[in-house]
């Protein structure tokens, strides 16, 4: 079975770089699964989960928003942050979620979008660890 | 004489202690420098990939006129200055800030014509004292800044540009030439220079864009600008450690020289004291 090169890059470093069988994530227009020889595609990503399938094993990462670039032999995910499921501090994500919810309840207009984003990220992290 | 000898000895001891400190700081800076350089390297793939995507986007769409790519009439200018939080780094901050002040004086007649974003406490203090219009600042960055640390100020700068609070944005930081040379540099960040985007490899891949070219561009350009700010910050950090290393290296050399000079003085004083004592004894014996 043919494989494709997957790179996950953040502003700080390359988080993941390997040959993989399949990448699953949620793009702008819905969930997509990418197999080798996929048509070239660019899409923004919201904070979401990326699932990588390789040799029957699955690896999950939490992505803090970014871009997906697909070429037939190469998939690149440019993310503001990317964490492997195993590296996520569950307690911290939970605390962040509560904090964001609290702030949303207070309902000050200026912080609303920021709090919503923070909530998204926290929920996303929690989801990754729970899956 | 004896008292002077004690003074000199005390002075030597004090300089020796200072030398120990500067030497330690130099070594810390050298270690930090190496790590900072690695980080500059590690950050490169991200911004290059982003840039490739933008180039592809721009090539695939005729006449993109996203506000971030098009120059407009300049009524107000934004500056983003990257300085350090701590001193003892030679001319690192003062060179950059002098460069900034000269540029401002040359280009603008009054403080209404520009606004400044500052990273680093040294820059904040300096510009506040001179009543400059600071509209955003970050201080207390860690030695190894993460993207999240500057995200707030970077996106503020990019958003303010998008909201037409100013019409161009310059980035001022110390360019890392090599460990002994850092040069204050000014770069125009926004509008993104089209020339910079054009000169790349011709890739003939035709992408599909989800949801649309415009929306992808809308998302990607601010990200790219923020990434460039982050890259400049990392380079600034590398320059800071290099400058610090040089400054501390010079300080250590100076301390060594001072110790040698003082040691000479001390020996001379000691000899003088002995000579005098002998003279006194001889004089005393002669008097008998």
Q: What is the gist of this entry?
A:
The complex is a heterodimer of chains A (131) and B (288). Chain A is of the alpha+beta class and 131 residues long.
Protein architecture, described:
Chain A: Produces ATP from ADP in the presence of a proton gradient across the membrane. Chain A is an alpha+beta fold. Chain A has 2 domains: 4-85, ATP Synthase, domain 1, CATH 2.60.15; 89-130, ATP synthase delta/epsilon subunit, C-terminal domain (Single alpha-helices involved in coiled-coils or other helix-helix interfaces), CATH 1.20.5. Chain A is 30% helix and 47% strand. Chain A has 2 helices and 8 strands. In chain A, strands 1, 2, 3, 4, 5, 6, 7 and 8 form an 8-stranded mixed sheet that branches. In chain B, a hairpin with a 2-residue loop joins strand 4 (168-178) and strand 5. Chain B folds into 2 domains: 2-27 and 247-287, Helix Hairpins; 35-242, 3-Layer(aba) Sandwich (Pyruvate Kinase, Chain: A, domain 1). The chains are: A alpha+beta (131), B alpha/beta (288). The A-B interface holds A 7, 9-14, 27-29, 39-44, 66-67, 69, 71, 76, 78, 80-81 and B 39, 42-43, 45-47, 49-50, 53, 56-57, 146-148, 151, 205-211, 215-216, 219-220, 223, 227, 230. Strand 5 of chain A pairs parallel with strand 6 of chain B, so a sheet runs across the interface.
CATH homologous superfamily caption of the largest domain in chain A: F0F1 ATP synthase delta/epsilon subunit, N-terminal
The CATH architecture designation of the largest domain in chain A is Sandwich
User: What strand order characterises the main sheet of chain B?
Assistant: 3-2-1-4-5
CATH class of the largest domain in chain A: Mainly Beta
Average pLDDT score of chain B? 86
CATH fold-level topology of the largest domain in chain B: Pyruvate Kinase, Chain: A, domain 1
Q: Helices and strands of chain B: which structural class?
A: alpha/beta
